[in-house]
Amino acid sequence: MKQFFKVFIFSLIIFSLVASAGIFTYLKYLSPEEIAEAAPSDNDIDEEETDDEFKTPLERAIRESNKINVLLVGLEGSRSDTIMLASYDRKTKKASLISIPRDTYYYREEYAKYDELQKINAIYGTEDDGIKALVEAVEDLTGIPIDNYATIKYSGLRAAVDALGGVEFDVPFHMRYTDPYDELDINVPAGNQIIYGDDAMELLRFRKTNYPGYQGYPNGDLGRVQTQQAFMKAAAKKAMSLKLASVISAVYPHIKTDFTLTEMLGLVKDAIGFSADNMETMTLPGTDKMMGKLSFYLADGEKIIQEVYKLYDINLSATNDDENATELN
Predict the structure, then answer these.
(1) CATH number of 2-165+223-328, picked from 3.40.50.10320, 3.90.20.10, 3.40.630.190, 3.40.50.1260
(2) Alpha carbon distance 154, 96 (integer Å)
(3) For 172-199, what is the mean pLDDT?
(4) Is residue 175 predicted with pLDDT exceeding 50?
(5) Ramachandran region of residue 71, left (φ > 0), alpha (ψ -120 to 50) or beta?
(6) pTM here?
């Protein structure tokens, strides 16, 4: 359990923002008898389905894999300002984190073609069941089935960073931006420094400047995503040497998730042996493009397929050869 807290919890709380709610509840409320009763059995797998029921190698690989895929959402008001898809392989102890730029174009018929509400970060706040709609959109974009979700308010991230005593981080340039309507004033100097909660919020939210003589990210939201990933890694490294009870307690009130206690107990069991070295990060393949008067991020479907096949260890070229041979026959 100690190894689980040091590695898995913080890799997925600070790095991936997911597991604290279930684990904290489990630690606080479950007795040993309830743990034994709730723990999932290795025999609880439905083995009735056969290979004939799967039309593609990807469908078969998804069915046979040991992966759990979790949508991780950082909330800024009614918008999902940070969207990540975390995939953890229970067998190999490897994890992948896919960042989805908030400006990613996702067409919805009820809105104008190039409206801001066609950006994926608008889905959460404009649908009746926002998180369900966002899950479906990410599944549609990536082709990856999502098992669970976790949302965290930015105030939770601030609390976590403060509970860590700040995080050492090298800020790439002086970040300066003001939005009086949003009561936002970002002013984070460049250079190596200890970043505390409020500055962490500014650092992770910054994307562009409206001050003469200052700069934003030359590659827009992609640059911001890269900084977010680097900061989370720095936080995870610091967390490895700390007792995390206070951090979990600080973050817990700010998280909502559909993980059940049984599912979290299964992760506790399967996460033993996980190392942060087995975590890889990437950004959803695509490009920035001006459409109408707005900048959108257009997902690259072909490259996404390649990455998903790689994620599930499927040889894409061999699969194409097999499909071509089937068509010829």
Answers:
(1) 3.40.630.190
(2) 22
(3) 91
(4) yes
(5) beta
(6) 0.71
